[in-house]
Request: fold
Amino acid sequence: MALDKDKVAHIARLARIRVEDKDLAPIGKELDQILSWIEQLNEVDTADIAPMTSVVSLKLKRRADQVTDGGYPEKIVANAPAAAHGYFTVPKVIE
Amino acid sequence: MSLIKGETGEWEVVIGLEVHAQVSSNAKLFSGAATAFGAEPNAQVSFVDAAMPGMLPVINDYCVEQAVRTGLGLNAQINLHSVFDRKNYFYADLPAGYQISQYLQPIVGKGTVVLDMPDGSTREVGVTRLHLEMDAGKSLHDQDPRLTYVDLNRAGVALMEVVSEPDMRTSEEAGLYLKKLRSIMRYLGTCDGNMDEGSMRADVNVSVRKPGGELGTRCEIKNVNSMRFVQQAIEYEARRQIEVIEGGGAINQETRLFDSKQGTTRSMRSKEHAHDYRYFPDPDLLPLELDPAWVETIRASLPELPDAKKARFMKDYGLSSYDAGVLVGEKDTGAYYEAVAKGRDAKLASNWVTGELFGRLNKADTALADSPVSAAAVGELIDLIADNTISGRIAKDVFDEMFATGKGARAIVSEKGLTQITDTGAIETAIDQVIAANADKAEQVKAGKDALLGWFVGQVMKATGGKANPAKVNELLRAKLKN
Reply:
């Protein structure tokens, strides 16, 4: 698999990481190496094996429909970089 | 099929809807925070909803049950094995940076919604799937000139996304689909269908094509929050696409926003990069396995749904498809009607409920639950008509009075002395007076001008304050003038 500069820029954007133009090609090469290492897994024949979602045989835990949490707005926004009147605030998102 | 005429001929509109319906539950899908509408900002948020590090989701059993119940109500396949995935995108009101949703293996598969067309016919729309997912928070853009405020109270609330097949061809069908889906979910008690509070929102997919041709490129109009807006958005978007194509352009597959003030749609530039969701199974959640016996218990507990009730009303009460459709739209409407119709003329009961009562409720902008006239009271009024105590015409005046004061029909009739005059002698006296005063017209009727007979009936009714039995007036007038 070869990652071109556009692909790297796209991935960086999705991850919200700023990558300078000059760094796109070297990062692409680095990611290529990681990917081809992982691609070794493709050598294993998994045609008859169902996808595994967990290594332990547990059932999904469920809870009853009861209100047991919440009611602490000040704790929710305590670590927010910016807040006002109990809301988180962020730079204006314009549609 | 109904087509839109363009410059180059006729176009067919193809519509599919994705409806987000809030599950009626006390707590959120993956946390124990409350779901009630209208709380103080961030007061109904747990650390799970705020995506604090180390917090793990635990699924709400009742929300799963509600999704299964809805699936059964849509005659859909229930998938005993389904999987939760992460849908990744970046937005200020999505603290984790992903939404927990279902992608390749949803909890509910293919089903059907039957539309009741205004002409009494029916039309089927396919449901592709229903999946469970969590809602995002709410962004408020109008509180500050430079800032967007974020409230996470909605974040984590359970939603059912119901995806339809692209089976609709007109905005009217889309409206009827929404109406029916809402009705079914309200019968089931799985979603309150309150569009004003955001309990039901729709994403509308619209494309146009030449009749029978290949499907055109579609645009998705996001988050339309009323039935009327859904219809307006479709009308506008279809016209826009036809104009673009006929002007030599091409439709870009894109996300658009509906502007309810202008009645138009416009491109949502911020969503250009949003379609790369990188779904993958959520490692915090195991697959959702359902016990078939549990599903059957839910199936056995389903109430009578609108389609079945409509069929029963048509069969048992002899109602038209249209009247039955109106009466079964809401559960309490059907129950009200049945209470009125029990032991009475079913058709007369339907006329009084759908025509007289609903008309007055609409005018007064009052819900049936707050009606000043109970089903028993309407029944009492109908009994008075049936036993000839009052005429149908007087009954309408009595009903006005009942509606305004909440008094019973019998009380009003005796208080105002509205009891119908069936005494032949009294009516004959009135008739004789009217004939004497209008001898010329009486001669004309005798000479064969039957049209005037109706005028005489009216005059006699007027003379008796509307209390004469109209059938008797007619009979006696005929006897006097036609022999």
